[in-house]
């Protein structure tokens, strides 16, 4: 399962799917490093390579998940009482998140110039798409999440980052897929394409 599958890049683009359920088996760290290395070939303005990764796995997931729960309570998405229904919901969320083999938090340093900021953010998004495609070639699934806790200054501080200086672009859930989502198709490009000839 750790061997790379030879796959054409165009085929990978069409066949890659977001992964919503994962097998319990971890992806070997050497494979993850290869996947992230492919990501670094993304276009990057002025060769800044702005992407940074915090990878949470094994026992490291527990504190990360606790921080997520605290954030959801702080921003009002979860109650803070000891009601049995609330506690059951928290336990269920924790179990779900802890069963995901790896969580990769992708962040970058903010540039005060708004144009440079957009350039860096775009570059990091290209890095993320590259790692998704590379992962698929290894039989590894990912889910690109952009969740409310990423915008919570308390969460950013609790994971050891300075929210004034960095922006979290995504948290990637990573592992071998338990099942692969069906092909939902795409809108014909003619409906999105405007051709101007004069």
From TrEMBL:
<keyword id="KW-0288">FMN</keyword>
<dbReference type="InterPro" id="IPR052530">
    <property type="entry name" value="NAD(P)H_nitroreductase"/>
</dbReference>
<feature type="domain" description="Nitroreductase">
    <location>
        <begin position="13"/>
        <end position="176"/>
    </location>
</feature>
<dbReference type="Pfam" id="PF00881">
    <property type="entry name" value="Nitroreductase"/>
</dbReference>
<keyword id="KW-0285">Flavoprotein</keyword>
<dbReference type="InterPro" id="IPR000415">
    <property type="entry name" value="Nitroreductase-like"/>
</dbReference>
<comment type="similarity">
    <text>Belongs to the nitroreductase family.</text>
</comment>
<dbReference type="InterPro" id="IPR029479">
    <property type="entry name" value="Nitroreductase"/>
</dbReference>
<keyword id="KW-0520">NAD</keyword>
<dbReference type="InterPro" id="IPR026021">
    <property type="entry name" value="YdjA-like"/>
</dbReference>
<protein>
    <submittedName>
        <fullName>Nitroreductase</fullName>
    </submittedName>
</protein>
<dbReference type="GO" id="GO:0016491">
    <property type="term" value="F:oxidoreductase activity"/>
</dbReference>
<keyword id="KW-0521">NADP</keyword>
<keyword id="KW-0560">Oxidoreductase</keyword>
